[in-house]
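Researcher: Please predict.
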Amino acid sequence: MKPSQQVEKVLEHIKKCSPGQNEFYQAVNEVLFSLLPLLNEDSRYLEYNILQRIVVPERTVIFKVNWLNDKGKIETNLGYRVQFNSTLGPYKGGLRFHPSVNLGIVKFLGFEQIFKNALTDLGIGGGKGGSNFDPKGKSENEIMKFCQAFMLELYRHIGKDTDIPAGDIGVGSKEIGYLYGQYRKITNKFDGVLTGKGVNWGGSKARKEATGYGSVYFAENYLNANDDSLQNKICTVSGSGNVAIYTIEKLYYFGAKPVACSDSRGTIYHKKGIDLTTLKAIKEITRQSLEVYAEIHHDAIYIPVNKYPKGGHAVWHIPCDIAFPSATQNELTLTDVKALYKNGCKLINEGANMPTTPDAIDFIKEKGILFSPGKAANAGGVATSQLEMSQNASMQRWTFAEVDIKLHQIMRNIFDIVYDTSIEFDCKGDLMVGANIAGFKRVADSMIEQGSI
């Protein structure tokens, strides 16, 4: 059977045994078909059934979370932890609290995490988790109660040498604090079982900034490889959470000008450049809508969601040189990339997990727009989480500068292996192919060496 037929067979199988998980199918489809240059060259991966084995999680945990709201009423949510692959080390991946979370979303994120973590070369496996709990509109007490109830089940399945969760959408330092406090109370242990902790109790400096900083480091490396740089580039960034905020911060460091960002309610466009102090105050302190930004800066334009282009998002229709999709999956559509191309965008650098739809990726490749896949470009967050694990294990605390230097080098190494792999397999610098093959090889080779476990 030809490699392409094997891939089709695997895809058919997971659709039968995992119905209704479209995001998971999308992630698997993208990875497996991009592996064809490798599979055509090396038959070992088919002989050892690596494709069939790597798309099945080693363990999937689904649990009920009962918690008391402020009115004394019991509410129920679903919790998930998908421990996908531990071949290279303990499971590592974030927890997402968002109403869109379901098993398919968690499996797609966990599957992507396998290869992202492999690219860091830091000895961590892939996993992901979360809940359909929505922190928005909840009181501080309700968020704390939910986190404590969530950890009451999760603690049974995690450990510093087994599975080390972190934050993701809806899970920031506050939520990690509540989760960790409950873990300590239940287990009577103070260990590195979570990352993204407060710096006073085992956290790493630069962790909050890491995904955004790393994304920009990757973009700069890619532009340098094409005899260009971020200097004087106009940039648009989706989202306004940690990834987006610290992407914007580091873009200024490299001399670029970020002019737009977004949240679930709308997009802000500030032609002279996003005011970082205002953005941080709105999103990190008062936690308000970006609409407030336009009330403070009268020369900025606020575009509400109901004014977005049909089938698209306003942030991508603002002229730019580089786009940084940094919010959530499938946010960058075919309509959006056509607008980016028309406006002269040179590079799309993914800061989120799988933010670009498949038809949009096809268009990007057809038009020759430079494209940095998320599993490479946004690996800075998990890389710094592993640095936090290292500090916990050695009882050390590194300075912000020390962590940032290590992050910068890790992102350089990731770019080099991804770019070199794309050239090795004659993919003309297709970094998506390079990232998938490089990450897959590290995991698959180790799976073969460890036997049929």
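Model: The mean pLDDT is 96.
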